[in-house]
């Protein structure tokens, strides 16, 4: 399509039809005045007017006129030639110059259109003056003023159209950007949820299954010599399986961890120490310091999961005899410390997490603490035990989101 001619819309189609009717009306006016005025050459004026009208009517029918400026220029030249012949025959043809201005400005390039409008206005003035056999400045006012109005209207409309197209493209780009952003946010949400689920599974089901495995191994070793001890280990493994089944069901239902239902974080940690001491060869003691302050569910879940994971690591790897779990309320912070007397390790030489051997516990703890704006500190050395400290602000950062309830 001609780049100078904007795409047709209902508004532009209405304007085009108004222009067509204007041309037909002005040609009919010239014919009517020639016939009713009994002017000489009335038949010739009628014939030229009909020819001019047919030539004009061919433009909207031919698709090449809107697609090619060359075709549009040829069509305008044919219409202009017919109009000049009509102008030479009757002064009433001078009014047809006004719609010709709009056609030239609409279909030609800006420079060519301005030149065509100037030539058309000059021809209209000269033709009318020739019919009057005289010239006065008043004769030039009408065609010149019409040309100026046409230029202002068409160029103003084109400027508005370009601005409208620019805004339309901006809206399309904004819509596409919002769609991309929504996709990116969805992907980020999926990754964050996967990370949350991985931590939950590691700190609950995986640790519970590990505890069951240790208890069954203890039962297997005790079975030949001490069947009663083996039965006790099996009963503890069964109870651990029951607890983990409840965890799994509540986890799937996205409810609060059962260890926190109807109790406080301190009670849940104390029960965790009691259960760990009863099931394993580890004496776990719980201590509470400071004045307890209300915590959000996210804080309680994070500290409980860290305690579960830390004690599970102590049971599996530290070969410790005792472990002390301390929950401290420190004014604007809450801290959880787990200290054991096991053989310890070098924190700088931790193995990379592996699906077969594990190693996700410390990374999950650190992720939980960082999500709530806290810090995680680990102090350990071979043969000197391990001290783990998680500290959380009582008011989490505004951009963090609780992970207890998806």
Textual characterization of the structure:
With 406 residues, this protein is an alpha+beta fold. It is 66% helix and 9% strand. It has eleven helices and five strands; from the N terminus they run αααααααααβαββαββ. It has helices at 10-36, 42-61, 64-67, 69-89, 97-107, 110-132, 137-222, 227-252, 265-279, 297-318, 361-371; strands spanning 283-289, 322-330, 333-340, 375-380, 386-393. It has a five-stranded mixed sheet with strand order 1-2-3-5-4, with helices on one face. β2 and β3 (333-340) form a beta hairpin. α1 packs antiparallel against α2 (42-61), α6 packs antiparallel against α7 (137-222) and α10 (297-318) runs antiparallel to α11. The protein is rod-shaped, with a radius of gyration of 45 Å.
Question: Topology of this structure?
Answer:
Blueprint: H1 10-36, H2 42-61, H3 64-67, H4 69-89, H5 97-107, H6 110-132, H7 137-222, H8 227-252, H9 265-279, E1 283-289, H10 297-318, E2 322-330, E3 333-340, H11 361-371, E4 375-380, E5 386-393
Parallel strand pairs: 1-2
Antiparallel strand pairs: 2-3, 3-5, 4-5
Helix pairs in contact: 1-2, 2-4, 4-5, 4-6, 5-6, 5-7, 6-7, 7-8, 7-10, 7-11, 9-10, 10-11
């Amino acid at each position: 399509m001609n780049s100078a001619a904007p795409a047709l819309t209902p508004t532009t189609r209405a304007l085009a039809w108004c222009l067509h009717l204007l041309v037909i009306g002005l040609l009919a006016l010239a014919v009517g005045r020639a016939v009713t005025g009994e002017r000489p050459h009335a038949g010739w004026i009628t014939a030229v007017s009909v020819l001019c009208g047919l030539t004009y009517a061919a433009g909207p029918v031919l698709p090449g006129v809107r697609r090619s400026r060359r075709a549009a220029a040829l069509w305008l030249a044919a219409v202009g030639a017919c109009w000049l012949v009509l102008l030479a025959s009757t002064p009433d043809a001078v009014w047809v110059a006004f719609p010709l201005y709009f056609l030239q400005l609409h279909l030609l390039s800006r420079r060519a259109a301005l030149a065509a409008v100037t030539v058309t206005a000059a021809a209209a003035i000269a033709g009318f003056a020739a019919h009057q056999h005289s010239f006065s400045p008043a004769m030039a006012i009408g065609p010149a003023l019409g040309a100026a109005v046409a230029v202002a209207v068409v160029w103003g409309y084109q400027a508005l159209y370009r601005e409208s197209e620019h805004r339309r493209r901006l809206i399309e780009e904004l819509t596409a950007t919002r769609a991309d952003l929504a996709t990116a946010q969805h992907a980020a949400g999926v990754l964050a949820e996967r990370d949350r689920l991985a931590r939950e599974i590691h700190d609950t089901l995986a640790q519970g299954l590990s505890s069951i495995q240790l208890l069954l191994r203890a039962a297997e070793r005790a079975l030949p010599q001490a069947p009663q001890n083996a039965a006790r280990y099996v009963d503890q493994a069964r109870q651990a399986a029951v607890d983990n089944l409840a965890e799994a069901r509540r986890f799937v239902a996205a409810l609060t961890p059962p260890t926190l239902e109807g109790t406080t974080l301190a009670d849940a940690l104390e029960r965790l120490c009691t259960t760990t001491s009863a099931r394993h060869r580890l004496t776990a003691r719980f201590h509470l310091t400071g004045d307890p302050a209300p915590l959000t569910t996210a804080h309680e879940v994070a500290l409980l999961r860290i305690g579960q994971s830390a004690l599970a690591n102590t049971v599996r790897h530290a070969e410790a005899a005792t472990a002390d779990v301390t929950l401290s309320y420190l004014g604007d912070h809450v801290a959880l410390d787990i200290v054991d007397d096991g053989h310890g390790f070098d924190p700088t030489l931790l193995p990379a997490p592996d699906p077969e051997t594990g190693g996700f516990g410390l990374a999950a703890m650190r992720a939980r603490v960082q999500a709530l704006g806290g810090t995680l500190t680990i102090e350990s050395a071979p043969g000197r035990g391990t001290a783990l400290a998680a500290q959380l602000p009582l008011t989490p950062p505004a951009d963090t989101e609780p992970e207890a309830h998806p």
